[in-house]
Specification:
Structural class of chain A: mainly alpha
Helix content of chain B: over 70%
Strand content of chain A: under 5%
Number of strands of chain B: 4
Oligomer: heterodimer
Largest interface: A-B, 45 and 43 residues
Strand order of the largest sheet of chain B: 1-4
Distance between the termini of chain B: 15 Å
Order of helices and strands of chain B: HHHHHEEEHHHHEHHHH
């Protein structure tokens, strides 16, 4: 592997990892803070991609479609939490698993009714539709670089939100002791609703960002779901920092696995997970 | 702990219905019912882990698929006797469960879910990418195992009706075996581990060994289901090892009601029958099935089987 190829694989791995982070961070927050195992998280990613597809077609501008899509995703998150999820906080986790599994079927079929089962594509926005030349034959698309940049900005933003703001403080407190936070006069129900909406919005945003580089297709949600769970388990559940480290690890392991060990490419990420969990049974940044 | 009386009555009615069903059912429905009963065996074996021992496995298809592949590899082209190939296939599954169990039982909670998933997925990708196992196409069984008693062969596994009744008998046997296991002191310890593992440990029970034994037993019974799948379908492909298979079984267990043996069997039946009914009814059957699942979670705490328990108060463990 020469240096240019290596660089491209490295960039691809980082970009894939950062995209995974957007999905996994919401998942880890929802699980860590609300204690909800959300299997429908992959569907939110898919919904984001289809929102990008339909809104770009409707509005005619990818940049305007993004905020509109995020707003719709937040509304969806609030509605779902209010209608369904909030009834399950005191129930066994497995009922959340079952309910969100039902949601996968519902969202999948709604998508099929609204958009059919064809593969769609979203054009890369004209502003970023060019490549940087690395060598005479190899170049790297700027849109992918921009994606990584946006993901990094969001990661920084989330760190600031959770570690530096009053809201973040209540979120962290709420994950430790729900009753105590409630007794201190904080509206935990509202807090959970916000966290859930944030998670939905992050996953949908990831789907919108990914739409121009990956095509928009029916199975895309299920494809990222399991891998996102792998990420949050490696990182340690509830840890956003852990999710970032694990996303990058998995992104790189997946991309380089395909280049270095093509015969066992599919197994790479699971091997990494098994190894990490044997070494640290609660993940990289997990607390006991 | 025990299946509530109403549920057992329902089960008896269903059993009689299943015995009589081939008199009226068309071939397609007999085939479909056979598949449901195989999945019911699989779901019951998973419930031993999930509902009774508190070990939520998302990799149960590993043991299920291994037994099916074992039969396909050994008896796919030359007929073998069921008398030794079925125990052998279940033994392979049990050994796989032993190896995986030693490694995964050190974790708990969602970590356990994910590590069991990881091992199953590793095997899935290994089998899918290996020519020896037929790759993503899988392996066809040209012949079915033979079942003869001192030269007398009343059962022909090439015959759908015979397969139907064999599966029914095995499903009932699985139920009976699991019920007696759960009523034994061993089963009581498993339930104790589910409810409070530290207490069981401080009472002097080597909980790890109990959990491992439970994992191996559940694996062997999953192997039974996998073996019968290979016999029924005449083909074994990697999808039988994938996480969808494990996930679907888990949904059957939760939907039917964890911690009752009848519940998961009921869940398997409900999920498969509704899928069939809805898909005959409308192209958009997943919408109805998804809606049904959501409604069960919201309005029937304890799952479908929990309906019968509620009158006696508190089916919900959550």
């Amino acid at each position: 592997m020469d240096f240019a190829t290596f660089l491209i694989q490295l960039l691809n791995g980082v970009q894939y990892g950062l995209l995974l982070f957007l999905i996994a961070s919401g998942l880890t927050l929802i699980f860590g803070i609300m204690g909800v195992i959300n299997l429908a998280h992959g569907s939110f990613y898919m919904i984001g991609a289809y929102l990008a597809f339909s809104l770009t077609g409707l509005i005619g501008n990818f940049w305007l479609a993004l905020p509109a899509g995020v707003a719709l995703a937040v509304l969806l998150g609030i509605a779902l939490e209010w209608l369904l999820i909030r009834h399950l906080y005191r129930r066994d986790h497995l009922y959340q698993v079952l309910l969100t599994y039902g949601l996968i079927l519902v969202f999948g079929e709604l998508r099929s009714i609204l958009f059919g089962d064809d593969v769609h594509s979203v054009a890369v926005p004209a502003l970023l539709n060019f490549s940087i030349r690395l060598t005479d034959t190899l170049s790297y698309p700027v849109y992918r670089l921009a994606m990584s940049g946006v993901c990094l900005l969001l990661a920084a933003g989330m760190y600031w939100l959770i570690a530096r703001t009053r809201l973040g403080m209540t979120i962290r407190a709420g994950s430790v002791n729900r009753e105590m936070v409630q007794a201190l006069g904080i509206n935990v129900g509202l807090l959970y609703r916000l966290v859930f909406a944030l998670g939905v919005a992050l996953a949908a945003f990831a789907g919108m960002l990914a739409a121009p580089v990956a095509s928009v297709y029916p199975g895309m949600g299920n494809q990222v779901l399991i891998i996102s769970f792998v990420v949050i388990v490696i990182g340690g559940i509830g840890s956003v920092r852990g999710a970032l480290a694990a996303s990058l690890l998995i992104g790189l392991a997946d991309v380089f696995g395909q280049v270095v060990f093509p015969q066992i490419a599919g197994m790479t990420v699971y091997l990494v997970m098994a190894a990490v969990l044997v070494w640290r049974p609660r993940g990289l940044f997990g607390s006991a | 702990m025990e299946a509530p009386r109403g549920l057992r009555v329902l089960l008896a009615v269903i059993l009689i219905g299943l015995v009589l069903f081939p008199l009226v059912g068309e071939r397609f429905y007999i085939q479909y019912a056979t598949k449901i009963m195989i999945l019911a065996i699989f779901a019951m074996s998973l419930d031993l882990l999930v509902g009774y021992t508190g070990l939520v496995s998302l990799g149960h298809a590993l043991c299920y698929g291994i037994a099916g592949y074992a039969l396909a590899l050994v008896g796919g082209h030359a007929a073998v006797s069921l008398w030794w190939s079925l125990p052998a296939a279940m033994l392979v599954s049990a050994l796989a469960a032993l190896v995986v169990g030693v490694l995964v039982l050190r974790t708990a909670g969602i970590y356990f879910i994910m590590v069991t998933l990881a091992f199953a997925q590793m095997l899935y990708y290994y089998v899918r990418d290996s020519e020896y196992f037929g790759g993503s196409d899988g392996i066809y069984l040209d012949v079915r195992p033979t079942l003869s008693l001192f030269g007398w062969a009343p059962v022909d596994l090439g015959n759908q009706l015979h397969r139907y009744y064999l599966t029914l008998a095995l499903a009932v046997a699985t139920y009976v075996v699991l019920r007696s296991v759960l009523r034994s002191p061993f089963g009581r310890v498993l339930i104790g581990i589910r409810d409070n593992e530290p207490r069981m440990r401080s009472l002097g029970f080597p909980t790890f060994r109990y959990k491992l034994a439970c994992f191996v037993l559940a694996g062997a019974l999953a192997g039974l289901a996998g073996y019968m799948t290979a016999v029924q379908d005449g083909i074994m492909n990697p999808e039988q090892l994938g996480w969808h298979r494990s996930g679907e079984a888990l949904m059957m267990v939760i939907l039917g009601g964890m911690g009752t043996l009848a519940g998961p069997a009921l869940g398997a039946g409900a999920l498969m029958v509704l899928e069939l009914v809805f898909s005959i009814w409308t192209k958009y059957w997943q919408l109805l099935l998804g809606g049904f699942i959501v409604a069960v979670v919201l309005f029937l705490p304890g799952g479908l089987g929990g309906v019968f328990a509620r009158r006696r108060g508190g089916a919900d463990r959550g």
